[in-house]
What we know:
Blueprint: H1 32-45, E1 50-54, H2 67-72, H3 77-80, E2 82-84, E3 87-94, H4 107-117
Parallel strand pairs: 1-3
Antiparallel strand pairs: 2-3
Amino acid sequence: MKLREEENRKPQLVGETSRIVIITSGKGGVRKTTTAANIGLSLARLNLSVVAIDTDTGLCNRVNYTAVEVLNGDCHLDQALFRDKRWPSLELLCISKPRSKIPLSFGSKAIIWLVESL
Length: 118
């Protein structure tokens, strides 16, 4: 079965504007992380630059730095991005390590700054 040409095209972005996609649910166990990972990997396979921000701290055991360290000034944003050797255009930023929380003093503006910096 042949794919039609329009189904096999790479998506075209207009200009240098970044796109922000949020996958959220108030209910646990609905495969938010799986969905985000699959969308992120699919976009990276199209050679688009992708940064996934994971707020599930239980999945962030293997990282050295997180968004909390960036916001505290303990490291640069680039140091907190976790990269996969197989997909260099896909990066992960964990919000915080297990058993640590983002201080309430950061507020929502800090997260907005972080996303805009990416």
